[in-house]
Write a structure and sequence with these properties.
Helices cover 39% and strands 18% of the residues. It has 364 residues and is of the alpha/beta class. It binds beta-D-galactofuranose.
Length: 364
């Protein structure tokens, strides 16, 4: 069922690119104008293309191989080790790994990969294993923000530079790792709040399906959402917060409890699409109709954006997983001895009833 309410398309705040020679986006993951939206209508495949521009976070410091203590090498002669954190059941992880593989192949770089199946102890041993197999450089998508010391020491001993993507590790940039490339998760939370305020009229009780504990994504998406609600909609009350561990099963279980304890809940903010889709399943199981509860999620997976088209989900803020070009461009420049930024932002788009159908092709 197509919802008829219309909401302004929420766009990422334009990030002023500090680098004058920034390479133009080949195709943006943020539809900045009707033209872009029109483009995505013409060729959905192009609409999902990967971000090429290196957009430093305002105030980001830089790093060079000399200050870091690595060695200048030709990336083409190097072996890159990629450590993925979560099992590839979540489309975010599938798209993230594919982006790294595609870029390595495009650049003719030898890539070793490992998947920790959502177990942190396995991710630590995976990275040790990649080092033992001769990785000259590491790209890590961390499961947790803490507990990385053994890996950092082992990589430093072998002078193997690390680029982290997606979630942050609590360590020293340009000493323990070279660069951190990620979305602005606090901004994602703010934008999700904007969509929730729009969908609910800024009044009523809402619940938060929290992500997993122990990483910055959960804390920052929650921070951004709560800040914005407090700032713009004091009559919208967060009355329930519980983790769904970023999984669909847990998201469904928690929502089943939620609608028992809070039958009048007006909105659910799910900190990722998988939990949001679990919430939809719970609502359907309870005999609810599309639109009875406003759901806003974060990621931008195809199933969730389809949920917007079908009226079950009010809005989706993208968390762009297509890190391949940015990660390898950073590695390439770093190993050539050039300055790279320690904090790099990947742009996120957004979906609501106004653009979900035409932009479904941008979802992953
Ligand atoms: C965000 C990433 C999150 C996704 C979830 O960068 O760390 O982890 O939003 C995934 O889908 O579980």
């Amino acid at each position: 069922m197509q919802r008829t309410t219309h909401r302004p398309l929420l766009l990422a705040r334009p990030v002023v690119v500090a680098l004058a020679a920034a390479v133009a986006l080949t195709a943006t993951s943020c539809a900045k104008s009707e033209d872009d939206a029109a483009d995505s209508k013409k060729s959905p495949a192009a609409a999902g293309a990967e971000q090429q521009v290196v957009t430093p976070k305002p105030g980001s410091e830089t790093c060079t191989v000399d200050t870091y203590g690595g060695k200048k090498i030709d990336l083409k002669d190097a072996t890159v080790g990629f450590s993925q954190s979560e099992k590839e059941a979540n489309p975010f992880r599938i798209a993230e790994t594919q982006s790294i593989k595609d870029e390595a192949e495009k650049r003719g770089v030898k890539l070793l990969t490992a998947n920790a199946q959502s177990q942190f102890s396995k991710q630590i041993s995976d990275v040790q294993d990649l080092l033992a197999k001769g990785a000259d450089l590491l790209v890590i998508a961390p499961l947790n923000s803490d507990g990385w010391d053994p890996v950092l020491q082992a990589a430093a001993a072998k002078k193997v530079p690390i680029v982290t993507i997606d979630r942050k590790i609590n360590a020293t940039p340009c000493k323990d790792y070279v660069s951190f490339i990620a979305s602005d998760f606090v901004e994602q939370g703010r934008r999700a709040a904007d969509q929730m305020i729009e969908a609910t009229g800024g009044k009523g009780e809402v619940a938060i399906l929290l992500g997993s504990a122990g990483n910055n994504v959960t804390t920052e998406r929650t921070k951004g959402f709560k800040e914005r609600v407090a700032e713009k909609a004091p009559d919208l009350k967060v009355v329930f917060e519980q983790t769904g561990d970023f999984t669909r099963e847990k998201g469904q279980q928690v929502t089943e409890q939620l609608i028992q304890s809070n039958p009048g809940i007006k909105g659910i903010y799910a900190e990722n699409d998988e939990m949001g889709l679990g919430a939809v399943a719970a609502l359907k199981g309870a005999g609810k109709k599309a639109g009875d509860v406003e759901i806003v999620t974060v990621d931008g997976t195809r199933n969730a954006v389809q949920g917007v088209v079908d009226g079950w989900i009010s809005g989706v803020i993208e968390s762009n997983p297509r890190f391949g070009p940015l990660a390898f461009q950073t590695l390439d420049e770093f190993t050539q001895g050039k300055e790279v930024h320690q904090d790099i932002i990947i742009q996120d788009s957004a979906y609501d009833a106004d653009n979900a159908e035409q932009d479904l092709g941008k979802a992953y």
